[in-house]
Amino acid sequence: xxxxxIIAFATSLPGVVAVTAREGxxxxxxxxxxxxIFYDPDGEESNRRMPxxxxxxxxxxxxxxxxxxxxxxxxxxxxxVGREAFEQQTGYSPAEHAAQPGRYDYTAIDQLIPxxxxxxxxxxxxxxxxxxxxxxxxxxxxDAHATAAQRHDRRHA
Length: 157
What we know:
This protein has helices spanning 3-11, 82-90, 134-155; strands at 16-20, 35-39, 53-56, 76-80, 112-114, 123-127. The protein is of the alpha+beta class and 157 residues long. The chain has a single domain, classed as Aspartate Aminotransferase, domain 1, CATH 3.90.1150. Strand 5 (112-114) and strand 6 form a beta hairpin.
């Protein structure tokens, strides 16, 4: 899956908007090139609180560098999956992530890994989803979309 494939799939889900940060759009320079996937059925930018998925194309110095996204062509899909799905995928709860040092290779391509920074918030990641993980990525994106839609509906009820 390319970044465009992921964005096309996500935006085919009802109410989804994908925004790629660019120079001149008001986003911080550090985020330029990264994509943020929101559930926003009303098309109102002010309602976009948290993305349910992101695509990150570079390291964030001093914060998030363990995936070595500076390698040519490497990007990371990040998905908010919730506690239950996180545990199903990793075998432990998000709260237990800090007790897992050295368990994952955060530079591995086409493997599901806990997000290197946001695992405690139940986020998972895949670097360059491919043959081994593309179906899983689509399934997790679909589930994350459903959860985001439920949150939106509760907020606007």
